[in-house]
């Protein structure tokens, strides 16, 4: 099955849906917010362009409570910047929500957008915000989505680590899987497997940059938040310890005869978590963008579990279950398409126990890259 058919979050509003399990992604967006605000404010200060409408896009928007979070950040920044500049009227805003066609856009437009417009109308923000138009733009951000020179601002959070396809070169000439026993590359993987994943990321990220370069105006701004890796922290060296824990859980189930070994050997998750050095080199090589800010930060897997109530206390089993649920909301469509839906409950229960152990030992961390740039 093609990646674009299975690379989507759990739909709807059920227990394991992305709609109900996205507090972690919200925390990441909150931590990147100052950089987004800075980029939007600078765009407005430069008066780019002196036009009646600013066109912006969120690449990989998904379909949860966070989908419109970046848009609200941008609107508040436009409001405060217009007040600083003593402008009497802000430009209209056209905002495109992009994701693959399998994304649950119905939930966004049925459950989220009406409340967003109600909030916008209620607060009015001193009437310094022009009309706001929101539309969906289904399609892969690895290729072109918009006309030339049409976008002023592009945002993407926690999407660019996904690859457009499973990397080539993961099977030998004789047809043997080269990444046996793993669902993704790890420290035990053959160097050729790691190279194949890196090559695919380089192709995809370069294609993303070329496409956005064509679509953005000169001086337009872009802020990307990417789940990355950090060689200096063993917990983040390969960028996604949760994937390795899922792989370890599947190995246990293979040993117990609950999963076919061939299924495990032939599973390769299409994701890559780049280092800051890799991302910086690729941006420089592509040549269309100037980097204004590049920040890195680490965050625990159960960040924002209390959702603002700091007095709440959770034991390690609840924390493990919390992390398991939001990882399941993201990964289940890919895993169920390969291993079957019947094993998902047991798989993610085993995974939750491993997560709880990691959190108790203080090694449950993700490394994040935030890059603010402008088109030359």
UniProtKB/TrEMBL annotation:
Assigned keywords, A-Z: Magnesium, Metal-binding, Methyltransferase, Transferase
A single GO molecular function term of this UniProt record: methyltransferase activity
UniProt keyword Metal-binding present: yes
The keyword Calcium appears for this protein: no
GO biological process: methylation
InterPro entries: MeTrfase_7, MeTrfase_capping, SAM-dependent_MTases_sf
Protein name: Uncharacterized protein
Organism: Turnera subulata
Lineage: Eukaryota, Viridiplantae, Streptophyta, Embryophyta, Tracheophyta
